[in-house]
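REQUEST FORM: STRUCTURE PREDICTION
Request ID: SP-0412
Submitted by: Lab K.M.
Chain count: 1
Length (residues): 115
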Amino acid sequence: QVQLVESGGGLVQTGESLRLSCAASGNIFSPNVMGWYRQAPGQQRELVATISSRGSTNYADSVKGRFTISGDNAKNTVYLRLSSLKPEDTAVYYCNLLFWGKSYWGQGTQVTVSS
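STATUS: Completed
RESULT:
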């Protein structure tokens, strides 16, 4: 059974930074893709960034240049550095792991950016 555990959310002010972490455990195989999605109140869940086990990254246009995704394959952990945060970044951030056609989700961590 695969489990994802996120940490690192919180309340910050505009312009500040946060780092989110997501540790995956269980039977995990490569190649895989880990990523972050977010969902604001009343809105659909949207892609933030992904990273493959081979190191390829992908970002939503809204976060390019401000957020950085990185991963540690040995630890099955993915990180998301959020910089220059804006109030519109406020959302629940979910970690995702995709491999062998199966998608796994974490429980989510709240990020709130005050103006």
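NOTES: The chain has a mean pLDDT of 96.
Reviewed by: T.R.
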